[in-house]
Specification:
The protein is mainly β. It contains 4 helices and 28 strands. It has a 7-stranded mixed β-sheet. It has a 6-stranded mixed beta barrel with strand order 4-5-9-6-8-7. A 6-stranded antiparallel β-sheet has the order 2-11-10-22-23-12, with no helix packed on it.
Amino acid sequence: MLRLLTIFILLAAASTGYAGDNEPPEQFVVPSEICREYFLVPVNLAPRKDRPAERTLWFLYDTGAEISHVDPSSVERASGTKVKAGQWAVIRDAAAGPVKFKKLRAKVSNLDHISRALGREIDGILAYDSFPGFLLTLDYEQDEMRLVTGQLPKPDGQEIFSIKGPDKRPWLEIEFPRRKRRMLIDSGAGVSGLVVNKLDRYETTAEPLISGASFRLKKIEMRSSARLVGNAYLGPHVLLQPTLQSTPRSELIGGQVMRHFNWTFDLKKKRVRIERHEPETPITFESIVAHGMILEMHPRGFRIRSVVAKTPAALVDLREGDVITHWNGLPIG
């Protein structure tokens, strides 16, 4: 079993490189698709006689992830080997276009809930440091991922910023009225904007309302949101009265902020360059509207764990234990 697993566990600097025969060009594109502000990367495994000629796994690139993950069903499909969640696997000699992964270490984790939330299958999550040795650009204007050789200059507080934080992931300071917070730059939080601890410490235009929930083991984790009184600042960039969402976990900058910029990360120097798409267009935030259902996985879709009072779901005939198989007539799968 251990020998079989090695076909398929954090990336070291020598574990990835350029797949061409010559020196890498100054800039090249990583194949990707955009789905709801998320970058999805196709990783092609080396062919095997006993497997299909084309073995492609789709990974979501997540700057907020410390380690890579792969779904157990994806491991079995690509390798013929059954593995359990919680184990580790090594993907060897794989490529994403011109990028070659000599050894990609990933934790085996069930990712069905992410696939259903996105509305398309994904096989894994790529950690922030999955492309060492290059500058990585997430271009939200062109929906493109690029790798560039070189390094970023020293931070200037206008375009180049330090992303040093409590761990190896990228962290960036956001200035709120009367406080500054160093927050995680999280491309894996595609539908979020600014997510903060202790929302009651911020002056908001109205009382926070429940805007979501997640079921963690035996604990239901409620999320609230409210609009900030005043503006927030990312360097010189004004975030007009952003909608804040609460979390007991890491505070973060999500895709609803990231999509207004192009982000170039220098992993080695721990820096980022931020460029606006349309400098004259204000950065505004939509209100967060929640359906009010706390959902858990079910073989046929989602099961309603509970319904939150005073939400749209509480006003219609939805009850705890109901199973949702379709949204607007479309199968959840």
